[in-house]
Amino acid sequence: MHVYLNGKMVPESEAMVSIDDRGFLFADGVYEVIHVYHKKLFEWELHLARLQRSLAAIQLPAMDGSELARVAEQLILELGPEQSEASLYIEATRGTHRRAHGFPPPGSTPPTVLMWVRPVNPIPKETVGQGVPMITVPDDRWAKVWIKTIGLLPNVLAKEKAHQSGAFDAIFVRDGMVTEATSANIFMAKDGMLYTAPATNYILSGITRHVVLELAQARNISVNLTPFSVDQLLMADEVFLTGTLTEVLPIASIDGHPVKNPSGPMARQLLQDLHERAGLQP
Ligand code: PDD
């Protein structure tokens, strides 16, 4: 398959980035991941807007959205007929320059831009039906988590800790309050009401989170966006993750404590509504 790198479509095996790339040296870049359902980008405009916000936050120039969409469509054309689900990855770094912390002089390097489309396997139905085990970890990330930066080492370490403890993923906890998971947001349902952390600088404001909140409102489910603790999470009726590739994924246990209803009706309904919005057959 081809990938897009700095204005060209190149075979994946020939796509090379310099050792002086600032993404490689400093994680000085931002990214997006978009779900492709049946060759169509899901919620493209929302992802593009978030990409532009992330670029602006690190003082990189805005990107041409119609050009990105055109490249994405070209990459999607390479998917086989059987590959109904895929992900589009977009990354932009501050380009290539001899290592120095300060920005390269203006005009000395264009950003490095990488895009690919790769097939993804949907999460097995049994996993969705049973829910997944989670652990909690201290949220020791920086205070600008809202920027979708490629600097993801705390997320990587937390995910690995989860795997080493036999869990699916980790829930970040900051000052006693639940923020999010390593690459997904977190919701709980209690007495018919839906809760998720507010979109402050301490979470990545997920596109799936946004869509799920809209879907909940369309079903007249009340939503509460105030911070909640792990104790509250443990008393919830349902707990679930939302994310581009995670979709709506029920949680079965947290630090070994079972969740009351690991495949609850709220998560099931919202997943069905999400799939409908993505144009999937029930
Ligand atoms: N991650 N929180 C974090 C820290 C994330 O990295 C992500 C997405 C989300 C969910 O956002 P969205 O619904 O827009 O996907 C929340 C992507 C999928 C990734 O890093 O692969």
UniProtKB/TrEMBL annotation:
One MF term in the entry's GO annotations: transaminase activity
Keyword Zinc-finger assigned: no
Gene Ontology biological-process annotations: amino acid biosynthetic process; carboxylic acid biosynthetic process
Cofactor(s) this protein requires: pyridoxal 5'-phosphate
Coiled coil: none
InterPro entries in the record: Aminotrans_IV, Aminotrans_IV_CS, Aminotransferase-like, BCAT-like_C, BCAT-like_N, Class-IV_PLP-Dep_Aminotrnsfr
Top-level taxon in the UniProt lineage: Bacteria
GO CC, one annotated term: cytosol
Alphabetical keyword list: Aminotransferase, Pyridoxal phosphate, Transferase
Family, per entry: Belongs to the class-IV pyridoxal-phosphate-dependent aminotransferase family.
Protein name per Swiss-Prot or TrEMBL: Amino acid aminotransferase
Species per Swiss-Prot/TrEMBL record: Sulfobacillus benefaciens
Lineage start: Bacteria, Bacillati, Bacillota, Clostridia, Eubacteriales
